[in-house]
């Protein structure tokens, strides 16, 4: 997309738009980012956040997912390449809510994912977003890494919150 070019096609500005999928991975925050809460909603049986995940799936057919590190790298990649313009989707993986739940069920049995999350519509939707990779961008995180890092983030923040609560309780008893 460009704006302000003259009749010869020179001058003006080029615009790059990065639409980002549901972002997972780690964060340097004192709380769990809302997008990570959505991705991990099945683990804590958080129905409100899970409905957000289902809404994205119903709207798009599959949930486009991106790791926060890939999102940052995509922004840098586009900023450094002056020849890039247009709209791009930043998403390395596309999964159904049932696929996400089944991954958690198989790889994190300690969370006891409820059966209601394991079933879902069996849509044969094949997503692909190659426009950015066609320009030379390389994603470093796949679905497994996005989900694993999202869980690590949630556990880290939740564990820190539990420690803070314990310290507050100890102070109250003194």
Characterization of the model:
- This protein has 174 residues and is of the alpha/beta class.
- The chain has a single domain (18-172), classed as 3-Layer(aba) Sandwich (Rossmann fold).
- The protein is built from six helices and seven strands.
- The strands form three sheets. A three-stranded mixed sheet has the order 4-5-7.
- Mean pLDDT is 85; it is low at 161-174.
Query: What overall form do the CA principal axes indicate?
Result: elongated
Number of helices: 6
**CATH level 1 name:** Alpha Beta
The CATH superfamily name is: NAD(P)-binding Rossmann-like Domain
Question: Which residue ranges are poorly predicted, with pLDDT under 50 across at least 5 consecutive positions?
Answer: 161-174
Would you count the extended β strands for me?
A: 7
Distance between the termini: 63 Å
Short description:
This protein is of the alpha/beta class.
What is the topology?
Layout: E1 2-3, E2 13-14, E3 16-20, E4 22-24, H1 34-39, H2 47-60, E5 63-67, H3 68-80, E6 86-90, E7 93-95, H4 97-107, H5 131-134, H6 143-172
Parallel strand pairs: 3-6, 4-5
Antiparallel strand pairs: 1-2, 5-7
